[in-house]
Amino acid sequence: MRPAYYRKRKRTKIRGILIVICSLFLILLAGFFLFPIFKIKTIEITGNKEIKAEEIRNILNYKNIFLATKEKIKSDLIKKFPLIAELEIKTNLVKRKVEINLKEREEFGIVCQAEKIKQENVEIEQIKECFYIDKEGIIFEDALQTSGSLIILIKDYSGRDYRIGDNIFKENIINFIAEAEDFLLSEVNIKVMDFNNLSFPPDDLKVITGEGWYILFNLQKEARNQLLALKAVLDEKVKDKRQTLQYVDLRIENRVYYK
């Protein structure tokens, strides 16, 4: 009986020691993450224009410099600020310092979700939401609808739902629109009121001109050939009749239809 008693007493003593060790470990671990000496001391931010530095610092209010990994910082900032296009992060654990250099997205134009509805047998255009879009086709901020030729306006009739941060147009579509706008103004002196995307995936592009008529392009083909064909028609076929023109359809290869 005596040996069994001592064995039980020894196990109890060992158990008590283990509990004390685990408790001390947990206290040290909590102190490591919460102790002020490990808190980020300095956050340097460069490259920001629209995004306020203080807003970034508020997001990076981590309790411990060791938790501020580059991956976590990047994830948290991009999730909060879709306006960020590029991000370079440096951390210095000794100085408890984080350096952030960012590049914000540059505005390419405005895209608006649009639809046609009928009221008393009259078709009316209805605009839902508008967003700023960059040259990569990513929407990054809410926008107000605009009109005229001061900024590229894309009306999207595809019926898609999207939110800030989504990439809604591939690069070739954005390049097509940019090339068309530049050519129309510089080569044939036509101001564009807006570009209409008619489907998803994007297939046809309807361009409303400042002269009151429209152009139909095929987005699956090269923009240059269609634009040169348009110029030829305007110079040779309807040179003196542009004021009565209704449309020019360039969607069929080697064919141009106009009215």
The major pleated sheet works out as: 9 strands, mixed
User: SS-based structural class?
Assistant: alpha/beta
Order of helices and strands: HEHHEEEEEEHEEEHEE
Sheet with most strands: strand arrangement: 6-5-4-7-8-9-10-11-12
Terminal Cα span? 112 Å
Mean pLDDT over all positions = 85
Descriptive overview:
This protein has helices spanning 2-34, 53-59, 70-80, 171-187, 223-236, and strands spanning 42-46, 84-92, 97-104, 107-119, 122-134, 139-143, 153-156, 192-197, 204-209, 214-218, 247-249, 257-258. The protein folds into two domains: 39-104, membrane protein fhac (Ubiquitin-like (UB roll), Roll), CATH 3.10.20.310; 107-258, 3-Layer(aba) Sandwich (Rossmann fold). 20% of the residues are buried. The model has no long low-confidence stretch (mean pLDDT 85). Helix 4 (171-187) runs parallel beside helix 5. The longest helix is centred in the N-terminal third of the chain and has 33 residues, at 2-34. The protein has five helices and twelve strands. The radius of gyration is 31 Å and the shape is elongated. It has 259 residues and is an alpha/beta fold. Strands 6-5-4-7-8-9-10-11-12 form a nine-stranded mixed beta sheet, covered by helices on one side. Helices cover 32% and strands 31% of the residues. The protein starts with a helix and ends with a strand.
